[in-house]
Specification:
The chain is an alpha+beta fold. The chain contains 3 helices and 12 strands; from the N terminus they run αββααββββββββββ. Helix content is 33%, strand content 27%. Strands 3, 4, 5, 6, 7, 8, 9, 10, 11 and 12 form a 10-stranded antiparallel sheet that branches. It has a two-stranded antiparallel sheet with strand order 1-2.
Length: 258
């Protein structure tokens, strides 16, 4: 590059409207090249900044979506933890309830189903077919307020035992069998009927709630209901009947009050 070319300049003349004094500026070619290079650099920097802004904006939007998903997952995790705690509490309460009926390794006179699902009943069915109702139908002694009365007696017909017992006491099956009727009516209130085979059936009436359903195969001493005062009843008690081929049998001839 020659010195002459270095001295070459570009003249820029600014002429204001109205004939005012003009302004003249001279810029060398070297300065123009420098200014052009700066313009290119500034344009590239602007493009880079604009691209980065759009990238960061997209990332921020994605981050917001991920944060929302994380919050949802945390809420679901908290629900799972809460359900797990409730399950542990129920298992503890159930274990305590089972402990009331007998300690581990020792036989209990009351049976309730295990917590982890329904057990296989195949082994119980044969026993249920011939199991006589000879167990006391309560976990407590209670107090017999009315025995069996024939229709010929002056006091009237009463085909079973009335046993005074506090509300929500455990009512248990007097023998193994199958639940053939469970429901509620105006006389017996909430009741359960169990078929023990060989023509024997038992009825448990005036319960506050049922713990078995129709077709349920029960073991001897399995808790089937909670005592109450439903139906035609003036106080909490269990009405218990044993029938042989539909005819009432005096329960005290088959079972012994503890």
């Amino acid at each position: 590059m020659t010195a002459g070319s270095e001295q070459r300049r570009v003249t820029i003349m600014v002429v204001p409207d109205g004939g005012e004094r003009t302004h003249t500026y001279q810029v060398s070619y070297r300065m123009l090249r420098i200014l052009g290079g700066l313009a290119v650099v500034l344009a590239a920097a602007f493009t880079l900044v604009a691209g980065s802004w759009w990238y960061l904006a997209a990332r921020a939007s994605r981050t917001s979506t991920l944060e929302a998903q994380v919050r949802e997952l945390r809420a679901e995790r908290d629900q799972v933890v809460s359900l797990q705690r409730q399950l542990e509490m129920l298992e503890s309460q159930y274990g305590h309830l089972r402990g009331l009926f007998g300690t581990a390794g020792a036989p209990s006179d009351v049976w309730i189903p295990p917590l982890s699902g329904s057990p296989s009943r195949a082994a119980d069915r044969n026993a249920a077919a011939s199991s006589l109702p000879t167990s006391w139908p309560l976990t407590e002694r209670g107090f017999v307020t009315q025995g069996l009365l024939d229709s010929d007696q002056e006091e009237g017909d009463h085909p079973g035992l009335d046993i005074a017992i506090p509300t929500d006491s455990y009512v248990r099956a007097a023998g193994a069998g199958t639940v053939v009727d469970v429901g509620e009516d105006d006389v017996y209130g909430r009741y359960v009927v169990i078929d023990h085979g060989d023509g024997y059936t038992t009825l448990y009436a005036h319960a506050s709630s049922h713990l078995v359903t129709l077709g349920h195969v029960v073991r001897r001493n399995e808790v089937i209901a909670l005592s109450g005062s439903t139906g035609q009843s003036t106080a909490p008690h269990l009405h218990f009947e044993i029938l042989l081929n539909g005819e009432a049998v005096d329960p005290l001839t088959m079972i012994q009050q503890p």
